[in-house]
From TrEMBL:
InterPro entries: HAD-like_hydrolase_sf (IPR050155), HAD-like_sf (IPR036412), HAD-SF_hydro_IA (IPR006439), HAD_2 (IPR041492), HAD_sf (IPR023214), PGP-like_dom2 (IPR023198). NCBIfam families: HAD-SF-IA-v1 (TIGR01549). Pfam families: HAD_2. Keywords: Carbohydrate metabolism, Hydrolase, Magnesium, Metal-binding. GO terms for molecular function: hydrolase activity. This is HAD-IA family hydrolase. Transmembrane segments: none annotated. It comes from Uliginosibacterium silvisoli. Coiled coil: none annotated. PANTHER family: PHOSPHOGLYCOLATE PHOSPHATASE (PTHR43434).
Length: 227
């Protein structure tokens, strides 16, 4: 039986979207592969693309075409990938295993939750609507909601205000180092999630997160019990 909580003041749990709340890698990877096939290139395995998915189209094009934003082909290829993604935004995307149970537990314990993502609104809104979430988030903050995106703290601070809580009453979960940097700058406890895409640039243990968790329901060990 749990005898204490690490963050008894917490009133709100905030999630990154891609790779934390939702497994969007199948649809994002498919968008890249449709573009590659159009160019006469073979489709890449999802296992190869999954680690870069949290970096969005930038990561996908680096993996799929070996180019970055400074390449003259980048803008056109990015537009093509994103067009394919827009047309197939929630075919195979789904909440990660045990995430529905976690959201239900948060509701039982009277805690609100929200989404803070670098995904732009034009993708976030239809994706969230199509997911059929078991509980509605108290806020959805996209990459273009505030002037600066993560790793700047502004999106997280905006989310806290939108949910009617202070930053210190929030925790933030993410699968990318910039999520942890943003949480630290916003004054929120940070949780790095091993079930996410993680990437290959730096080990998760070196991100400086307050905690690393392996499964969504592990979060409950750090939150206040039901009143």
């Amino acid at each position: 039986m749990r005898t204490h909580t690490a963050y008894p003041q917490v009133r709100c749990v905030l999630f990154d979207l891609d790779g934390t709340l939702v497994d969007t890698a199948p649809d994002l990877g498919a968008a890249l592969n449709r573009t590659r096939v159009e160019d006469g290139l073979p489709a890449l395995a999802l296992a190869q693309l999954r680690p870069v998915t949290s970096q969005g189209v930038r990561g996908l094009l680096r993996e799929g075409y070996g180019i970055g934003p400074d390449d003259v082909r980048y803008a056109t290829l990015a537009d093509r990938v994103l067009a394919h993604y827009t047309d197939n935004i929630c075919v195979d995307s789904a909440l990660f295993t045990d995430m529905p149970a976690l959201l239900a537990r948060l509701g039982v314990q009277g805690l609100s939750w929200g989404i803070v993502t670098n995904k732009h609104t034009r993708f976030t809104t239809p994706l969230v609507a199509a997911l059929g979430l078991p509980q509605s988030p108290s806020c959805v903050v996209s990459g273009d909601t505030t002037p600066k995106a993560k790793p700047a703290p502004e999106p997280l601070l905006y989310a806290a205000a939108a949910c009617g809580v202070t930053p210190g009453e929030c925790v933030y979960l993410g699968d990318d180092e910039r999520d942890i940097i943003a949480a630290r700058a916003a004054g929120m406890a940070s949780f790095a999630v091993r079930w996410g895409y993680i990437g290959t640039d730096k080990p998760i243990e070196d991100w400086g997160a307050d905690h690393i968790i392996d499964h969504p329901l592990e979060l409950m060990d750090y939150l206040p019990p039901a009143a």
